[in-house]
Amino acid sequence: xxxxxxxxxxSLNIDMVTETTVVPEQGxxxxxxxxxxxxxxxGANQAVACARLGAQVTMIGCVGEDAMAMQLREALGRExxxxxxVKTVPHQSTGIAAITVCxxxxxIIVVPGANYCLxxxxxxxxxxxxxxxxxxxxxxxxxxATVEAAIRLANKLGVRxxxxxxxxxxxxxxxxxxxxxxxxxxxxxxxxxxxxxLAQTQEQxxxxxxxxxxxxAGSNGAYYRSDETGTGHVPGHKVEAVDTTGAGDTxxxxxxxxLSEGAALAEAVAFAVAASALSVTKLGAQSGMPLRHEVxxxxxxxx
Length: 303
Hints:
UDP-N-acetylmuramoyl-L-alanine:D-glutamate ligase, six-stranded parallel sheet, alpha/beta, four-stranded mixed sheet
């Protein structure tokens, strides 16, 4: 069992996944090839990724007053995640994500529902939970004011914060300085920094952000930079991709777990790249997330 204690503050959704061989044009109706429903949401996904890798995980968020909320509570509870601080919001629907999968890639529409009812005062009331954490994980599927309140509280308490800025939005530099790490992809980094055009090289993209960063790059792995490590790159692994939906969330969870355990940034990024590669080989964001021994075996085989 990992020694990592991680608190995830974020969204809980039900993912409704439609598989198709053709993406419909506007006004067009087509016949799909399959449909599945999974528990999801970037917050819940990252919580599951951490739990599968052995961490002690606490989830903070909101669900609606409906059957989908029960599905989420039961599923995350089976993973051993502490759900005591997930609030039920009366007269609200649980968040959903409508996902279309075509040619092993995805397009996603998120309807936040109860996720946007997680307010700054909800987070501030849980100061003792955050203080007991090794790392707090955040994303942007909850109100921006709540994300900001959580960052400031964790910073005051001396707790490290990893922000996965998705969906992407421009962020104030004063707030960014309070983060331990930010984990955008190339597209998200351009929005976070206000860069209208992506730079020519990955190194130039990292240089556009003045603080510690890990930038994911899909099948090309991940790039990172910090004052201690300088700039580095961990290449991706060749796998047969089935569904990329949970790859980024798996990456973030794996990164947080290894950093909480005291791993160096380069080692943590390598572990996260391997975990995310394994996650795309199965359908569903959470169902595809690997266990600790699977990632370790995969890394041994890749050497």
